[in-house]
Design a protein that fits this description.
Blueprint lengths: L3 H8 L6 H7 L1 E2 L8 E4 L4 H4 L3 H11 L6 E7 L2 E6 L1 H14 L14 E5 L14 H16 L3 E5 L8 H12 L2 H7 L1 H14 L5 H15 L2 H25 L17 H9 L3 E4 L2 E4 L9 E4 L7 H16 L3 E7 L3 H13 L8 E6 L2 E3 L14 H19 L6 H16 L9 E3 L1 H4 L7 H17 L18 H11 L1 H10 L4 H20 L7 H24 L9
Parallel strand pairs: 5-6, 5-10, 10-11, 12-13
Antiparallel strand pairs: 1-2, 2-4, 3-4, 7-8, 8-9
Helix pairs in contact: 1-2, 5-19, 7-9, 7-10, 10-11, 13-14, 15-16, 18-21, 18-22, 19-21, 19-22, 20-21, 21-22
The structure holds arginine (ARG).
Length: 565
């Protein structure tokens, strides 16, 4: 897209810096008053004139050119009209030239971003509470990759803790490998719950669990083998979900990977005088920063979640030399991240400023069901399966003869679930509703996919149309509906950059919805297929550009776009 703000700023003779002036120029909300505007009241003081007089003077002096064709003073605003046909042509040719990768760039070349996301807990079910971290982390992975960064996706496994001692005791008493293989995590969870039920009346279980945990820590072969078995059963199950969601990781180094990597960092903190003893425990006092102390070693000598995260951050910096390390984790853990980031900062790691907690809100289901400790868990795979089933029913009703129905239902159902976690600014809590996320006319992923498929069917109907090969008559595009659509498409590359800078994939989601709605308005207002070949060609180019940006935008969110729906 042509940098109109810069072109305008370069032509204005006012006593403020180019930079400041550029930032004062905004896009207009209503095209009838021009495409860009400069509010002149902010120049009144330095120019010692009224805003109305400034706007009039600047308008009179303004020299138009092939990019900016008119400048008009209106009530203290200076409005600019761009050469709209040129802009349209630029946007469309940018999309075509990018060959399916519109919005990509190389601004990240040579830089590395680590993204810690999804981070499953071994022996625990993968539930709806894991949706946001998985969807947001994976989208950021794809967005940063598109911008040329080297991205390292990290699944910081929850694979350490005394609960694994209990798991082993329970498994040895009541478990069975064949059943666990078949039933997966559900069976492991059942055994774990049984342990807690039996424990009060069989106090010896507590001691046995402690012993087994100690054996895991010592690397005892039997303990190790059982633990690896639990890990395999858990990961095999989540892996099928990751495959369906198109989610990838480059590292699976979780909490236990840092078992032997905490002593160095702890010693360093001691040497710096940061660690104090408190009732036998070792802590970093953070009262000066209005935070409770960061607990690093318990009185029995065992380490904590924060100890491992500190070791992990130091290890990652050494291993990947990241420019940024993102942690896509629910806001409930705000304090944990603030604390350990602060500890690293106090320890003198200048890169502590590059650690970012990308926090998000909670997900609950419309019917009030939620994942709780009481075992009232809504599994992510059940949500996906149900969404896919419902998508299949809707498709069957709308388009009974559709080839590849099951594949399309999978793409639509999975897309709807992912989009529900990506549509709003991430910090908002989400109430998940099947009917809402699968509404083909709502602000949903199926609506975007449907619009994409509609674009394809128009292009198909047009027969021998072959994109940019044939010049179109762009005068057919000089109307408010097309202009609005083109401007939105033109803003896509900047939106991808903003989404990365703010760790906010929802900026892309929102733009895609705007584009789809603008497209549908364009389509209702203007016949695409017509007798005038040049006109038809120009409009088909708009359709093709829309399809390309919808497909690319959805891909950045991890959502596939079926050609037909
Ligand atoms: N497994 C943790 C949980 O379920 C999330 C881990 C997030 N990553 C980290 N480095 N702390 O709460």
């Amino acid at each position: 897209m042509i940098d109109y703000k810069k072109i305008i700023a370069d032509k204005l003779d006012v006593p403020v810096s180019r930079e400041e002036l550029t930032s004062m120029i905004t896009e207009t909300a209503d095209d009838t008053f021009g495409d860009f505007a400069l509010p002149c009241f902010r120049l009144a003081r330095s120019m010692r004139m009224s805003p109305v007089a400034i706007a009039e003077k600047l308008a009179a002096d303004f020299e138009t050119d092939e990019h900016i064709v008119k400048a008009e003073a209106v009530n203290g605003y200076l409005n600019f009209f761009v050469n709209r046909l040129e802009m349209t042509w630029e946007v469309i040719s940018d999309v075509f030239a990018a060959r399916g990768h519109y919005g990509d760039s190389d601004i990240g070349a040579g830089k590395t971003v680590c993204i810690d996301y999804s981070s499953v807990n071994i022996c625990k079910s993968f539930h709806i509470g894991h949706l946001s971290t998985t969807a947001i982390g994976s989208a950021l992975y794809k967005i940063y990759s598109a911008l040329g960064y080297r991205v390292v996706g990290i699944n910081h496994l929850g694979d350490y803790g005394t609960q694994f001692g209990k798991m082993i005791v329970a498994f040895k008493l009541w478990g069975d490998r064949t059943i666990a293989e078949k039933e997966g995590v559900a069976e492991l969870q059942r055994l774990y719950v049984k342990f807690h039920r039996e424990e009060p009346s069989h106090p010896e279980l507590t001691e046995q669990a402690r012993e087994w945990f100690a054996r895991i820590e010592k690397g005892d072969p039997e303990a190790q083998e059982l633990f690896e078995f639990f890990k395999r059963v858990t990961l095999e199950e989540v892996m099928t979900i990751y495959d369906r969601l198109n989610v990838r990781f480059d590292s699976w180094n979780g909490e236990s990977f840092f078992n032997d990597k905490m002593e160095g960092p702890l010693q360093l903190l001691r040497d710096k005088g940061l660690i104090t003893e408190s009732q036998g425990a070792q802590v970093v006092d953070l009262s000066e920063y209005d935070m409770p102390p960061c607990l690093l070693v318990k009185s029995d000598g065992s380490s904590l979640y924060a100890t491992r995260d500190i070791a992990a951050a130091i290890w990652r910096k050494k291993e990947y030399d990241f420019d940024k390390c993102l942690y896509v984790v629910a806001y409930q853990q705000n304090l944990h991240f603030k604390q350990f980031f602060k500890v690293l900062d106090l320890a003198g790691f200048e890169w502590a400023k590059d650690l970012v907690h990308v926090a998000f809100g909670m997900v609950s289901l419309e019917d009030g069901a939620m994942s709780t400790r009481k075992g009232n868990v809504v599994l992510l795979k059940d949500v996906i399966n149900k969404a896919v089933d419902k998508a299949g029913e809707i498709i069957e009703a709308k388009n009974p003869g559709l080839p590849n129905r099951d594949k399309v239902a999978e793409q639509v159902g999975v897309g709807a679930v992912l989009f529900s976690a990506l549509e709003n600014s991430r910090i908002k809590d989400i109430v998940f509703s099947y009917d809402r996320v699968l509404n083909f006319d709502g602000e949903t992923s199926p609506y975007l996919q449907y619009t994409y498929a509609r674009c394809n069917s128009i292009l198909e109907k047009a027969g021998d149309y072959k994109s940019s090969c044939v010049p179109g008559d762009y005068r057919a595009l000089d109307n408010p509906e097309t202009l609005r659509l083109i401007k939105l498409i033109g803003s896509f590359p900047q939106t991808v950059l903003d989404a990365a800078a703010k760790y906010e994939p929802s900026l892309i989601s929102a733009l895609l919805i705007d584009i789809a709605q603008a497209f549908n308005r364009f389509y209702i207002a203007h016949r695409v297929i017509s007798d005038n070949a040049a006109e038809q060609n120009a409009r088909l180019q708009v359709v093709e550009a829309t399809a390309a940006v919808l497909k690319r935008g959805l891909a950045l969110l991890g959502i596939e776009a079926p050609d037909k729906m």
